[in-house]
Backbone:
């Protein structure tokens, strides 16, 4: 599916910003948590109570043209259960549904970014066809499929808590607010750009995309430098 390339956390962040359903500060914190600590963007928003998984699933299905499916209502094939290792399913909170040749149909925990889908395809020699699912539903189905999922989930939760404590102790001064400065830089680049005669008015949607594009480019530049986390934001890309 070529359209899978459009499924990114940054694009979803743009959509949420355009609709003003989640504050920009929360979105930035969630993007930071994903990029710096590997916390899934979607799950950070839902677990933090900033948006319900139902509302988020509706937004994803509408804007990425993906089908919705409750994993518990599907008769999962035996071949699908064996196609991907359970460690992969646990890690991504993903439920296998069916297999058609090299195509593996799966239920996502609302959304998996394209880079993660691509990684799964490459490592397991398959083409993933994703359905939008619910995080809570996928966890329930995985628990029914694998009796050790509950134990894995508990251990993973403890690991995340320990990692969070270590990060707080090692760098108490660094917060997602530092990351916010990068998006501020992107926003400043958009706001200070003077229109030339004959330029068309910029829509709210285009403006939001420009801010996130600039901020995302700045993030990628910052990650290439020693330390990875930004302090003073690098200059935003020229428009």
Residues:
């Amino acid at each position: 599916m070529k359209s899978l390339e459009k499924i990114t956390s940054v694009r979803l962040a743009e959509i949420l910003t355009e609709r003003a359903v989640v504050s920009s500060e929360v979105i930035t914190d969630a993007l930071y948590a994903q990029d710096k600590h590997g916390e899934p963007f979607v799950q950070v928003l839902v677990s933090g109570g900033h948006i319900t998984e139902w509302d988020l699933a509706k937004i994803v299905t509408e804007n990425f043209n993906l089908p919705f499916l409750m994993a518990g209502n599907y008769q999962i094939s035996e071949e699908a259960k064996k196609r991907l290792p359970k460690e992969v399913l646990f890690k991504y909170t993903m439920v296998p549904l069916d297999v058609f040749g090299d195509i593996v149909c799966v239920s996502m925990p609302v959304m998996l970014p394209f880079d993660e889908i691509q990684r799964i395809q490459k490592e397991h020699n398959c083409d993933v066809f994703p359905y939008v699912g619910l995080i809570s539903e996928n966890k329930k189905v995985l628990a029914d499929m694998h009796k050790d999922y509950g134990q894995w989930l508990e251990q993973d939760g403890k690991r995340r808590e320990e990692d969070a404590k270590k990060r707080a102790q090692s760098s108490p001064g660094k917060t997602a607010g530092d990351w916010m400065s990068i998006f501020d830089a992107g926003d400043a680049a958009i706001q200070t750009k003077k229109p030339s005669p004959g330029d068309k008015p910029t829509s709210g949607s285009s403006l939001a995309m420009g801010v996130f594009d600039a901020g995302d480019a700045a993030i990628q530049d910052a990650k290439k430098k020693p330390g990875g986390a930004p302090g003073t934001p690098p200059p935003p890309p020229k428009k």
Summary: The radius of gyration is 19 Å. The chain has eleven helices and three strands. The first strand starts at residue 95 and ends at 100. The beta strands are 95-100, 103-109, 127-133.
